[in-house]
Amino acid sequence: MAEEQMEEASTAAAAATPFQLQFDKPIPFQIKMAEWNPEKDLLAMVTDDSKVLLHRFNWQRLWTISPGKCITSICWSPDGKIIALGTEDGLVLLHDVENGKMLRTMKSHDVAIVCLNWAEDDLLSRPDKDEFLPYEDRTARFFPPAPVMPRIGGLSSGDTGLADENEEAIPQFCSASCQRFNILCSGGKDGCVCFSIFGIFPVGKININKIPINVESSGKKNYQLQDASVSKVSLSRNLQKLVLLCYGKLIDTENLSHNCETAGLHCLYLDTSIFFNRKNELHQVSQQASSIQNLVEVVRASISLISKQWSSAMNLFHEKFSALPNLIAAHGAESSSEDEFLSLLFGTRTSPALHQFLASSLGEAGLKRIAKAVDSAGREIRGVVSEHLQPAVEIISFRLAELRGLARWRSRFQIIGLDEKLMDRVTESIGMLVVQVERFSRVAATVLYLFQNFFTWVLKCVKILLNEPTDQVPAANSELVVIFLKFLLDKDPIKQLLEADERIECDMDTARHVEQLVVFGGFTDTQFLERSLVKQFNQLEDSLKEAFLMPFTTISSQIHCQGLLPLYPVTSDTFSSTCTPTSISFYKDEDSQHEDSSHNWTDYVCFKIPDGSLNERNCIGVIKDSGNCCTALSTSSLSGFLLHMPDEYECVDLSL
Questions:
Q1: Which residue of 116, 388, 513, 522 has the fewest C-beta atoms within 10 A of its own C-beta?
Q2: Which stretches make up the Anaphase-promoting complex subunit 4 long domain (predicted)?
Q3: In terms of domains, do 236 and 334 share one?
Q4: What does pTM read for this prediction?
Q5: C-beta neighbour count of 338 within 10 angstroms
């Protein structure tokens, strides 16, 4: 009997406490936002001092990072492998969940990013009528794995190399993220909403303050938002609609003289069916473009590293050899450094200035130090070119050729803005860069060999002046020494190719051959050999921006507002500071009357109603299928309810 009473008491206690507190752990910082991963076993938190913490469900801390920027929003990728952070200055930061390392930084907005939403394509929403075959990326058939960011030889991770231990995570992240079609939506404080496929390829942008709005329930069609700020965005799993909550003033554009405006929280329904209707085409283009953007960064880092390595070696060379002109002037001579070395080479005389320079100022130790620095820089340059720069430009060339082929399928890809002429232009630009890289490789090899031969000859001269044996010094080619003195002592062909404003001289025969090749399908720009490697790379970047801007502009123009539903008003004095809990969720509607499964996602909008807006206090509003409400001819189809909380409770956040 006693046992039965205890069981009844425990059952009653369990019924009175529907939720059980699992952990109550202190944190040394105030948490301003937190987000569970899709599997609900990892919790990402942002503190007031903009540190990002990742904990397991058992409160085990995995890592803590400090991005160095004020974090204003956070969300997870659909597969739970990436954390996206929005910053106060409009950046989107993508971090690897495994170790917190930065994967990508994008400048999406000019103001603070107040909300993020990452939606993945629902495989079941693909219409049966679409017989478009899945696209296969053929790059792996013809090329080895894509190169990673170059690293300075001899440096451990954490030093000043351009790459760290996470360098191989970036191509892996890009490959994994491109398997399923997904879109990252970001909402800015200025009313702009940006769309990025895979979170890395910008594909659209709208400003809710500039788009026409239909409010059919009031019998008017010409409304516009003013001073609107995005509060929450959510893209449906079928990618056909975006539900957006924003604070702003609703202006009647037909009766501006009446000054009739309503400030408050509004629910917008945006038609994003272009993402659904052209998901295959967008997936293919974005897959190629995202990989191209990564490889462009590899090219940029490679050129930067080559420039730094060569500049360091040449600074040491000129620092030591600049002492010779000063010694010549001090001895009252009027000859140049080239004349002095040529006189020594031909055995006519050795001036006191040159003797002092070789025996004292430079010396054998100084010469070997310079030779070692130049040789080390040469090995680094050869490694970067062969392992990073050249493979990157070749893979870019192949991927752009693939995009060029897709652009010629006008019935499929013209509607998303893939322009054939722009792709022809960028394909030619990458082809010219491939030639530039090959020329740079040959010039660098020639220059390094001439330096090595010159240092060998100078070392032999130093030993002769110091009366030391020279049998261990290899013989030098006198003709190559003359070439070095004529063209390299005071000039730097490698530096010329690494400067954007340098004009490269091209001999007449080569220029004539380039012009003749135009007839056989060669480059129409016959002056490209007069540009440096860096200038050609800059031209490629400009061509890529122009080519990828066309899909961005085209998609942006096809995103429309289909309706607006005012939720509650706010007074003008509290409009700018209003920030109440809101939530947008999509759930699959098994009872949907639509035959097409793509329409079976129903949205639910939840919002805390400020106490001053309605006669009721402490209320939460829930609206079902707001998109249908926004586009219906009347609000008779409005489905929702109000939840009244006890007065002693305060709502700080909500989610359905």
A1: 513
A2: 266-465
A3: no
A4: 0.85
A5: 14
